[in-house]
Amino acid sequence: MIHPASLTRPCAAAVLAAAIAFSLPAGAEQLAAPAGEVVLTVSGAIGSPNVDGVLALDMAQLQSLPQQEFETTTIWTEGVTTFRGVLLKDVLSAAGATGTTLALTALNDYQIEMPAGDAGAQAPVIAYMMNGAEMSVRDKGPLWLVYPYDSNADFRTEQAYARSIWQLSRIEVID
């Protein structure tokens, strides 16, 4: 193993850059500034901002991240509903989030907090489509943090329901 003190500054910088690049998930790259209307901002303890210290995402950028689709029933909709969106963990990864707590805020400033570690491989999902159509503000959109409630009893709890914030517009990552 090479000791970092034995490296010259340009070499050490290259090693550090390579280490950071290899720590990103496969296919992840820093996102450019949004071209369209911003639908979600991620701020706070992040390492990959794209505009003025925040990660600002338009709908096309959100849709460029790995996609999830599932069917489930909810306590707010009738019958089985199909949701399409992006795992919260993938948005946090794109932002280079390093904090331990998330403050998620809706368009009307309603806010919930949750541990960042609860953003898992199955849920929650930041949905932007419901039953094949983009969601309007009137229909809990344009973004709704949802869980595949029917797939796991852990997603049918008061805690999961309380975290299912609709009209999501901002995420602050807190140390």
UniProtKB/TrEMBL annotation:
Name one matching Pfam family: Oxidored_molyb
Q: Which InterPro entries does this UniProt record tie to the protein?
A: OxRdtase_Mopterin-bd_dom (IPR000572), OxRdtase_Mopterin-bd_sf (IPR036374)
Occurrences of domain Oxidoreductase molybdopterin-binding (ranges): 75-148
Record's keyword terms, sorted: Signal
Q: Which domain of life is it from?
A: Bacteria
Q: Which SUPFAM superfamilies match?
A: Oxidoreductase molybdopterin-binding domain
Q: Indicate the transmembrane segments per the record.
A: none
According to the UniProt entry, where is the signal peptide? 1-28
Gene3D superfamilies in UniProt? Oxidoreductase, molybdopterin-binding domain
Name used for this protein in its record: Molybdopterin-dependent oxidoreductase
Instruction: Please tell me the species this chain comes from.
Output: Neotabrizicola shimadae
Q: What is the lineage of its organism?
A: Bacteria, Pseudomonadati, Pseudomonadota, Alphaproteobacteria, Rhodobacterales
